[in-house]
Design goal:
18% strand; three-stranded mixed β-sheet
């Protein structure tokens, strides 16, 4: 594989409802956004397993995730761990797994 400069498409964050869902196709295997980005060459994809609540307890940490990940060049799995910890620190709603456990990393 030839070397190429990193791009904004190397690490994808699908911050939407049920973006990790795929359907199984007999001929093609799994079809979904995650597999499409990985097949297109993205290094990693973060996607959600269920409907993501639009609340400050989630939106603010996700916005901070973008800034800290892009500016600090930390590994994406460390950035996701910090995102989950940040959401859990956002009060009673943030501590519930519904708020922070939806997001998974795919490579």
């Amino acid at each position: 594989m030839p070397l190429r400069p990193p791009s904004m498409l190397d690490h994808i964050f699908l911050h939407g409802c049920q973006t990790a869902h795929s359907r199984l196709s007999f001929l093609s295997g799994l079809l979904g956004l995650v597999s499409a980005f990985l097949a297109a060459g993205s290094e990693s994809v973060i996607a959600s397993h269920w409907n993501v609540a639009v609340r400050d307890e989630i939106s603010s940490p996700v916005a901070a995730f973008y800034g800290s990940f892009l500016n600090s060049k930390q590994p994406v799995d460390d950035a996701l761990h910090r995102l989950r910890a940040n959401i859990r620190s956002q009060g009673a709603f943030g501590r519930h797994p519904y708020a922070w456990a939806s997001f998974s990393l795919y490579r």
